[in-house]
């Protein structure tokens, strides 16, 4: 019965996405619908048809028979949509005008970002014996098998190169009248290279996949065309990277022995994984996406003190290095720690709760109602500001997609600390860019329909 209800919600999401009017081929809500379906609807259907126990304390039947889980999923989704389409959300932000000035500041900013990235790569790798040693031990470092040094703070600066790459791509491929195009192209290729090196140093797959997805989605926003061939190639390559990315990072441990040794290590890891496989690939994939649904169970059936807005404060506080903390008291554990303890009773790893469980942990059902509505409203507000300038500012398509990514990521993880730590580079870079290269004002008697789309080629 619950599976039918979830499938009905899934059909509604598809129907809504196909009939609603959008300013562009896709918008913030398009990405939200995709993430919501992957993290809540599909795992909920799977749990209803084939309940899986993720710990001795929580059985699959408990998940299926708990009416609060579908109630939270349905209420959460519709309140986000209501907030996104509320009248205030649709009109607020359209009167904000952004004008680019001092374009030379952007070039300087790009160079500074690349210098920060290079220095961070050097300093972060230095504590592990250099770049090659860091790459070869990336999997062990990520797993915590290698002790982290005091320079691990620079890990959060490694991805500034991606932001530089987005700005350079806008200058090379969108603003075609740039006189220093060849030099900018060289800088663009270097920024992509150093960013990939940074990603491999921390054995991270998602930043690489998201980076190339942002390039593709930004091109769709600018051209207004959906290239099916490029999408097919991207989906194919991304799927391979998701399936075999860990094997690729594992093969880096053979770097000191040469390329042939890396290939042998890669093949060996695939064979070893196949021999140890005790679940089907589909079951493993679904289990990785099912934690937000199981987190809803513990959020509605575990006694705890409401966290209110404390996790937002703790998330910001986590950005300060431990060495600079004036207080001798430890920063309280964030919601992911407690959610993991409630789910599997271990602190060896961390399971983020997802946004719906985060709302319940914060202010119970009133938090679910308030935060989901505010979440949808904020997404539409920021989307309106960016949409008005998509065809007026060359780098705006990249900021649009990056902002949408951060917005949906908060819904996926539901932990401000993870959000701030993961997207420190993107949030700070965007803020500085708007401060040094734009002038923001509020227009009077303005409507979105009056915007004239301009081509940068002209």
Structure in a nutshell:
The chain has 458 residues and is mainly alpha-helical. Helices cover 68% and strands 2% of the residues.
How far do the termini sit from each other? 58 Å
Shape: globular
Structural class: mainly alpha
Q: Calculate Rg over CA atoms.
A: 23 Å
Number of strands: 2
Report on the biggest sheet.
Answer: 2 strands, antiparallel
Strand order of the largest sheet: 1-2
Strand content: under 5%
Oligomeric status:
single chain
Identify low-pLDDT runs.
Answer: 446-458
Instruction: Look at the structure and give the mean pLDDT.
Output: 84
By DSSP (H or I, 4+ residues per run), the number of helices equals 21
Task: Give the fraction of residues assigned to helices.
Answer: 55-70%
Give your account of this protein's structure.
The chain is mainly α and 458 residues long. The protein has helices spanning 2-19, 28-49, 60-65, 68-85, 87-91, 103-126, 131-136, 138-143, 160-174, 181-201, 206-223, 228-251, 259-275, 281-289, 291-301, 310-317, 335-344, 355-387, 396-413, 416-422, 424-437, and strands at residues 96-100, 438-442. The longest helix is centred in the C-terminal third of the chain and has 33 residues, at 355-387. The radius of gyration is 23 Å and the shape is globular. It starts with a helix and ends in a 16-residue tail after the last strand. The model is unreliable at 446-458 (pLDDT under 50).
């Amino acid at each position: 019965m619950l599976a039918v209800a979830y499938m009905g919600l899934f059909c509604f999401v598809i129907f809504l996405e196909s009939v609603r009017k959008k300013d562009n081929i896709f918008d913030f809500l398009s990405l939200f619908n995709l993430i919501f379906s992957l993290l809540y609807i599909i795992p909920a259907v799977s749990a209803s048809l084939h309940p899986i126990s993720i710990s001795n304390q929580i059985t699959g039947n408990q998940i299926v028979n708990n009416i609060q889980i579908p109630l939270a999923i349905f209420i959460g989704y519709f309140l986000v949509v209501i907030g996104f389409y509320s009248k205030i959300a649709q009109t607020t932000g359209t009167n904000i005008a952004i004008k680019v000035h001092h374009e030379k500041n952007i070039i300087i900013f790009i160079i500074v970002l690349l210098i920060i990235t290079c220095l961070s790569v050097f300093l972060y790798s230095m504590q592990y014996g250099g770049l090659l040693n860091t790459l070869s031990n990336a999997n062990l470092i990520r797993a915590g098998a290698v002790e982290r040094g005091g320079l691990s703070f620079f890990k959060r600066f490694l991805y500034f190169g991606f932001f530089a790459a987005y700005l350079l791509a806008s200058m090379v491929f969108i603003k075609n009248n740039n006189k220093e195009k060849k030099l900018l192209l060289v800088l663009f290729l270097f920024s992509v290279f150093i960013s990939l090196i940074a990603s491999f140093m921390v054995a991270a797959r998602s930043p690489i996949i998201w980076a190339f997805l942002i390039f593709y989605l930004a091109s769709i926003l600018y051209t207004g065309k959906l290239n099916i061939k490029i999408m097919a190639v991207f989906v194919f390559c991304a799927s391979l990277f998701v399936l075999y990315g860990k094997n690729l990072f594992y093969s880096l441990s053979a770097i000191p022995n040469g390329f042939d040794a890396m290939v042998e290590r890669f093949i060996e890891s695939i064979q070893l994984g196949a021999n140890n496989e005790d679940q089907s690939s589909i079951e493993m994939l679904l289990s990785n996406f099912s934690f937000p649904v199981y987190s809803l169970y513990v959020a509605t059936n575990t006694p705890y003190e409401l966290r209110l807005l404390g996790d937002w404060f703790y998330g910001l506080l986590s950005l300060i290095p431990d060495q600079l903390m004036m207080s001798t008291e430890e920063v309280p554990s964030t919601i992911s720690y407690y959610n993991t303890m409630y789910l599997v009773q271990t602190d060896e790893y961390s399971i983020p709760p997802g946004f719906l469980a985060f709302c319940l942990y914060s202010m119970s059902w009133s938090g679910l109602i308030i935060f989901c509505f505010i979440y949808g409203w904020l997404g539409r507000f920021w989307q309106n500001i960016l949409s008005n300038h998509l065809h007026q500012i060359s780098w705006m398509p990249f900021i649009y997609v990056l902002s949408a990514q951060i917005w949906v990521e908060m819904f996926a993880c539901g932990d401000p600390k993870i959000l701030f730590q993961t997207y420190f580079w993107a949030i700070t870079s965007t803020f500085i860019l708007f401060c040094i290269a734009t002038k923001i004002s509020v227009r009077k008697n303005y409507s979105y329909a009056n915007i004239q789309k301009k081509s940068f080629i002209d």
